[in-house]
Amino acid sequence: MESTKTYFNRQQNWIYLILIFAGLLLRWINLDQRPLHHDESLHGIYGLYFYDNPATGFYKYNPLLHGPFLYHLLPFSYELLGVSKFAMRFPMAFIGSAMLFIPWIYRRYFNPKTALILTAAIALSPTLIYWSRFVRHDFLVLSCWLAMLFAITHLKGGWRNFVFISFFSLQFTIKENSYITFGLLLAYLFYEATILKIVDKYQESYLSGSLLHIKRSGLIILFSLLSGVIIYCYFYSAGFQYLQGILDGLYRKSLVYWADQHSKSRIPGPFIYQFMILSWYQAPFILLLLYQTFNFYVAKSWSWKWPALLALTVAICLRIAPSTGLIEAFKWQFSMDHYLFLFLLLQGIVVTTWHILKREKVLAFFCYGFFSCFFTYSYVGEKVPWLALYPFVMGLIYFALYFDKNIFVHRRRQKYFTVALLAFCLWSLRISLITNYSRAGKASEYLAQVHTSKEYEEIAKKIVTELDAPHRGIKPTILNYRENNWPLSWYLYGRPEYVYLVKNHDPASFDYIFDQPYDPALHRELSKTHRKILIDLREWWVPDLDQMTLLNFTKYALTHNPWNPIGFKKVALFIKKSRSNELQLKNKKN
């Protein structure tokens, strides 16, 4: 086995070790610092239900909360580390740390300088660090992707089939976008096969190679598929305790629900939403995309340039005379949406086709994977920041392969390597520290979408402290009245003093009451016995697209200071006057 000392030279070896060390620190230090997001508290507590009561508290599939695998994984973390925010986030931080070693595992495909740049991109990535410290399903899906890739590149014989199919099946127990992945993969197989049949029918395509492999290894593939079905059924049925979950996850609830969500656009945004996320948090990545585009076309003949010019002409015409029908069909919300729409569509087809014709099968596959993910997750009706992970990860692999083949083969260009690597590391480190530490979960960070405020979490913690060490031995009672069930229920889970939505109790009898900001009848009733304060539950920033000029866009990329006001949701907290001193809260305007 080749060591780092034989693969890297002495200077490169030190750089590699520093990058790995920095990547690990950024993923693990103060892992429980950021307040729990609304979604994290939901995921964490459903895992807690299962941990406390495996026979009755198992997860019953709900498409809003995605597949069951996460809720089977979290109990292991709680068992290992105890019930805490750290334990909840531990699996994601572990996966994020494992990703640091991907360039080393695939070092035979890259020269050492490319491997160093890819390691730096993973280690210092603001978004990869952020989602390594956030409880969501997407890192688990990406882990399945990487395991499937490992099976194809490093395993042989029956193990290759078994591992690939097992992890392919497992991703369907994690999140419904696995259907999108499956659809995109099938589309590529047929597209590549069609192109090769037209230009070179004697060259084997991935589709024909796969069919031939299935024919030769039918028995082991059948066994692997059976294992995949068992994996799927086991998780959706909670260990075969809840059989109706199998069909619910397969189609009965999942596909209908997400088709409806796409048509509604529950969390709307412009087509350039994922482009904004990547530009503001992964600026070097977007610069690589622009450079790759320039590098691709500069040396090509006009037969390859004319589709780009045609697309640009169409985009300009749509800008001058927009088509209402197209805007409605493709859900374009911003004046620049159609430019990115046409760019991703054209570039994905043209560059993928070029790689296929040049017999660069691996480059063609990852090029298609990058552009198809970028286009698809820009188009889907629900615009959320974690979906940018998919084009980003596929793009990292593609750019590493592309630049390794087209840039580092030229010695003249290698002299800029050290300067480029240093600039990239400093920029990425700065944005990572802002996003994950100095402004962790703050509303000014577009990535933090409707995050719980630090103030709210501190109040929840102080109430927990009172419950654990009650004043004069009397524990306070808490009523969650019509508001903010999440994340409050995580902090007060299992506490008999915590009650949610009680109809037959007198609200005035509770020591702490969380309610909506303005409820005149209840507030008058409580005015004699309780003191009222208003606190921020969640905060967010949604960029005003009417004010999004190139200058504002660039300023946010540089400073992360929003150009329009931040939004927030307030809740009322009523504190029994006899307990006001215990909580020691600052006075606020009613």
Plain-language structure description:
There is one protein chain. The protein has a domain at 453-583. It is 63% helix and 6% strand. It is built from 29 helices and six strands. The protein starts with a helix and ends in a 7-residue tail after the last helix. Mean pLDDT is 89; it is low at 586-590.
Instruction: Give the averaged pLDDT, no decimals.
Output: 89
- Helical percentage: 55-70%
What's the number of helices?
29
Alpha-carbon distance between the termini? 68 Å
Fraction of residues in β-strands: 5-15%
Jot down its keywords:
590 residues, mainly alpha, 6 strands, 6-stranded mixed β-sheet, 6% strand
List the helices and strands and how they pair.
Elements lengths: L3 H4 L2 H19 L9 H15 L16 H13 L3 H14 L3 H4 L6 H12 L2 H7 L5 H17 L2 H14 L7 H22 L6 H11 L1 H19 L7 H9 L1 H11 L8 H9 L1 H16 L3 H19 L3 H7 L6 H21 L3 H19 L9 H18 L4 H4 L2 H22 L12 E2 L1 H15 L9 E3 L4 H7 L6 E3 L11 E4 L4 H7 L3 E11 L9 H10 L7 E10 L3 H4 L7
Parallel strand pairs: 2-3, 2-4
Antiparallel strand pairs: 1-5, 4-6, 5-6
